[in-house]
Amino acid sequence: MMPLRGGSPYTGFVQTSPEPNIMNTRHAGAGFSLGTLIAVALSWSANHSILWAIIHGFLSWLYVIYYLITRVL
């Protein structure tokens, strides 16, 4: 496995600078957002259903706004 432009194939670092000690990294953007976590928590507290929590997690901020309009305001 060949390193990418001077980086190590095991660390995921890719050297993009002509300086030998300056390294830039690239990261995948997968993960849970704050909106997803809030939506799942609100859904679980309201419905106690894993299926609804997953569905509301996918809808994330839309469900949070809906919850605020229908339950809080």
CA-CA gap between termini:
58 Å
The overall average pLDDT, rounded, is 75
- Helix and strand string, N-terminal first? EEHHH
The coarse overall form would be globular
Order of the strands making up the biggest sheet: 1-2
Number of helices: 3
**DSSP strand tally:** 2
Which structural class do you get from the secondary structure elements? mainly alpha
Q: Helix content range of the residues, please?
A: 40-55%
Which radius of gyration do the C-alpha atoms yield? Answer: 21 Å
Largest sheet: 2 strands, antiparallel
By oligomeric state, this entry counts as single chain
Q: Report the uncertain regions.
A: none
Residue fraction in strands: 5-15%
Describe the 3D structure.
The chain is mainly alpha-helical and 73 residues long. The chain has a two-stranded antiparallel ribbon with strand order 1-2. The protein is built from 3 helices and 2 strands; from the N terminus they run ββααα. It has helices at 34-47, 50-59, 61-72, and strands at residues 13-14, 24-25.
Can you tag this structure with a few keywords?
single chain, globular, 3 helices, two-stranded antiparallel ribbon, 73 residues, 49% helix, mainly alpha, 2 strands
Chain-wise SSE layout:
Elements: E1 13-14, E2 24-25, H1 34-47, H2 50-59, H3 61-72
Antiparallel strand pairs: 1-2
Helix pairs in contact: 1-2, 1-3
Task: Give a nutshell description of this structure.
The chain has 73 residues and is mostly helical.
